[in-house]
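B., you asked whether I could sanity-check this one before it goes into the benchmark set. Here's the sequence:
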Amino acid sequence: MRKSLKIIALIIWWCEGTKPRQSKLWKNTIYKPIEVINSDYRIVKIFTDFLRNEMKVPNKKLHGQI
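And here's what the prediction gave me:
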């Protein structure tokens, strides 16, 4: 894995990503999704490419929302 891409992905998640949150349905459940929210498609593309290519996350695990 290219170190610079790993650092860029970490910075994107750190700045634009969501953090763990508690479930509203189950009191003792905490969600730890990896989410990136940004209106610039290039930021989202860099992060999803990192997840697909470097972290080997299958496409069926990735979801988008507009």
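One thing to flag: The helical segments are 3-16, 41-54. Otherwise nothing jumped out at me.
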